[in-house]
Amino acid sequence: ALTAFNRTTEQWKQIDTAHHMHPFTDFKALASEGGSRLIVKADGPYLWDSEGEQILDGMAGLWCVNVGYGRKELAEAAYQQMMELPYYNTFFKTTTMPATELARKLVELAPPGMNHVFFAGSGSEANDTNVRMVRRYWTLEGQPERQVIIGRKNGYHGSTVAALSLGGMSAMHTQSGLLPGFAHIDPPHHFQLGWGEDEDAFGIRAAGWLEDKIKEIGPEKVAAFIAEPIQGAGGLIYPPRTYWAEIQRICNEYGILLIADEVICGFGRTGTWFGSFTFDIKPDLMTIAKGLSSGYQPIGGVLVGDRVANTLIEKGGEFYHGYTYSGHPVASAVALANLKILEDEGIVDRVGSDIGPYFQGRLRELSDHPIVGEVRGIGLIAGIELIKDKAKHEFFPNAGKVGTLCRDHSFRNGLIMRGVYDTMVLSPPLIVTRDHVDEMVGKIRR
Ligand code: PLP
What number is the average pLDDT over the span 140-146? Predict the structure, then answer.
């Protein structure tokens, strides 16, 4: 619609660099490099820029456009809901049909024993809700000293001050300050931290870092452990198959709550509805966002298991927490329409049984490339770790330099993939076909 402004691409870029502060961006460098590429439309797994160039979106936006672009059903759901009731809140004893129905539907999809949902506007907000809930839970349970939440180095849980503290991105901690009451352990990164070691043994050893940290802090002070089933933005760190069972055992042994951040893994990405199903995790709380609405509307939330919900409900009184957009009716209506597409078209099953294995198989063909050290992933999420010398297991100096070059080159050549340090990450829309996968693999090799 904004084509009515009749501006040239150059004019758009000038205005953008003059006034728009982009997320996770070096503002000055962006301006000196000629500004941002202007994306103007999309369909299926493809984007087009203002120059008419077609780009295959190997990242589904920011790991979120699960049903692909251009789904009229989602636009219609938003339109109808806006005409009927564009906004009303879920505070002060009111609700709306979309928010209520979405809560019911999510509980139906969630692991058994998760019977409640708290809505937020994003993954970061939902993780702030986790922090509030976990601490409230332990206070109500008569153990208010249990406040510390343990996350993982290079874990990503969002960009608010609490969410960045849950996360383990040291650059974010340095810029904004890590809140007190958070600790981090190393991730189960076999390729970097356990090379040469049997992977199953490494998985147990890496889970043991949680136990070490609990003992170091004092078990009576630890409230919860948070982790992504597959660590995404930290470099697509895929857990050894022994890892999660051992993490689960440790959480049970010390009675600490387990939070699975499903913001990336949820809604089909790993070939099941949640990463927790794929890795047999039994979390007390689950963070959801992104694929919940396929990114068509901003929405997130926390799926709350009975252990926490019962305490908050039975002992808690009023919980002083919530967002203006908790259970937003339009976002909820779009999320419902999105879940209907995922179900009606059997998209999740197809990722698990057909296109996911095909994608993983084709990507592994890249292993013969001299700088491809490891290809890892499941379903439609994968990482390709680049390495300088395979035989010596020697990494490139200045981690991230090669990854960034590779990402930028790929972007210019019609494929979006992300570089996290020197790991190239892919997380395409779940509706990609074998032809799209073949196109992706060809471009990646180039
Ligand atoms: N959790 C995980 C695992 C994520 O990957 C992200 C975003 O990438 C978030 C939380 C934060 O979500 P949002 O950007 O919607 O706040």
Answer: 98
